[in-house]
Amino acid sequence: ADTSHQTRSVSSRPYYSLPNSSHERRSVLAITEPPRFHSQAKGKNVRLDAHSRKATRRNSFCNGVTFTNRPIHLYEKVRLKLVAVHHGWSGALRFGFTIHDPSQMSSDEIPKYACPDLVTRPGYWAKALPERFAVRDNILAFWVDRHGRVFYSINDEEPILFHCGIKVSGPLWALIDVYGITHEVQILDSMFAETVTTARLSTARLSTCLPQSNHDSANFNNNELENNQVVAKIANLNLSRVPGLATDNHIIPCCPNRRQRAQGVPAFLDTDLRFHPTRGPDITFSQDRMVACTNWQESNRTLVFSDRPLHIGESLFVEVGHLGLPYYGALSFGITSCDPSTLRTNELPADPDFLLDRKEYWVVYRAFPVLNSGDILSFMVLPNGEVHHGVNGASRGMLMCVDTSQSLWVFFTIHGVINQLKILGTVQSSPVTVSPSGSPGGSQYDSDSDMAFSVNRSSSASESSLVTAPSSPLSPPISPVFPPPEPSSSKNGECTVCFDSEVDTVIYTCGHMCLCNTCGLKLKKQLNACCPICRRVIKDVIKIYRP
């Protein structure tokens, strides 16, 4: 063992040396000033308090990169309290370490983003804190050990292995990017972490933060939202200059700038469908339960349901409204066989995907385009199970396929820029002839559901059109084209691959039944195998047995 470390005084040791005992680690903390934010090396939107212990990001969602004013010891916990979290942006705090001395950096060298701008440079290591941990007053602690492994913990819970391969042969400064929904953080007094033994490491959770490839997506989404916000501010400024037009910036209506009802929306709507009393705790209803509003400052659990099932062929019309706040995110829509009256408020999660593990039938759709205040959405379930939607009277095609053999309730989650949802009413439609494209009376290019489906499929973490039963059809981008029904005594159709054997296999997760078992097993083994009908990735094939 290296005994030279033992004879060297604690105060004279480099920051990157390892204290040899818990007593010595406590001695290091006793003589070392707690870390602070570097007063000069910071992003242009960062404001520090008088003691450089609290960093606040002003304006925008980025330019919040900061560093500690001194190197961090091995095993020294950098402890951050999340003082303010503003939901609506995409992504949360980024944190890690760097071998570069912030005192040698100029303001021009500090980019807008830690990820990917800094982490693509040598000597910088950082990743994102999962958004579910970015909760106000949570305490994040992260540290690096002598093996170059970075761990973090939330509220002193079990450590999570966050990063590997950090260069620990020299001093390391902590890197903190006050990004996205994270608005303000405070550095707390340091503590030393215990060594994570091999046995304990085997039980340590791996980080569930976003992979690096998804940081560009978060940055893009936030930039788009910020650009839209600038356009909205310019428009409001121009309106304020119109003579005789009074404006009040202190009163923000629940649904501002309401537009006239869009063309194509029926003039007479039935108003017997309302929101069900069971709702997320962050939702407020109007007295007649036709309008649902969120508390925009803390709008996490915002599930709302219809108070009765939606009839087959019945169109539901809803109007959205938002405050124009600089938030990212909007609306989710879903169908369920679960009667909302059987649910309790404390069972309703912030993310509707958590409901997919329940025994009932649930389908969730997220990939709506950017909506404006006053936009009117329509939803209709066709007899064949296709759910079609429209915006402001214009058909947008099919969202998903559902099982119509049971009663189906509609549900929404309201978040981000959307702060209100109003039920306008319903209308029972006459039978609709569905073209092979999946859109009533149109071609497949009349619908943007292909694009929406691609967005859902692009990230395994956001596959939100899921069902609890493998046999249920799952949001194909276009409608399957089935041959005319044959007599019950005939075969169940030919395999779409070999055109010889009888169809006896269903594809999971899309639910299409178009293969024989032999071809299904062969197709499943192929790289990037996908359904011949909807092109959705094949996760499994299931043989069906009939009496």
UniProtKB/TrEMBL annotation:
Q: Which reaction does it catalyse?
A: S-ubiquitinyl-[E2 ubiquitin-conjugating enzyme]-L-cysteine + [acceptor protein]-L-lysine = [E2 ubiquitin-conjugating enzyme]-L-cysteine + N(6)-ubiquitinyl-[acceptor protein]-L-lysine
Q: Which UniProt keywords apply?
A: Cytoplasm, Ligase, Metal-binding, Notch signaling pathway, Phosphoprotein, Repeat, Transferase, Ubl conjugation pathway, Zinc, Zinc-finger
Record SMART domains: NEUZ (SM00588)
Might you give the EC number(s) for this enzyme?
2.3.2.27
Q: Which GO terms describe its cellular component?
A: early endosome
Q: List, alphabetically, the PROSITE patterns matched.
A: NHR, ZF_RING_2
Cell compartments where the protein resides: Cytoplasm
Mainly localized where? cytoplasm
Where does the RING-type domain lie? 495-535
Q: Give the Pro residues compositional bias ranges.
A: 473-487
Q: Which GO terms describe its molecular function?
A: ligase activity; ubiquitin protein ligase activity; zinc ion binding
The record places domain NHR at 34-190, 272-426
Endpoints of the signal sequence: none
Q: Where is this region: Disordered?
A: 1-21, 464-491
A biological-process GO annotation: Notch signaling pathway
Q: Kindly tell me the pathway this chain contributes to.
A: Protein modification; protein ubiquitination
User: What is the stated purpose of this protein?
Assistant: E3 ubiquitin-protein ligase involved in regulation of the Notch pathway through influencing the stability and activity of several Notch ligands.
Under what name is this protein listed?
E3 ubiquitin-protein ligase NEURL1B
Species assigned in the record: Ciconia maguari
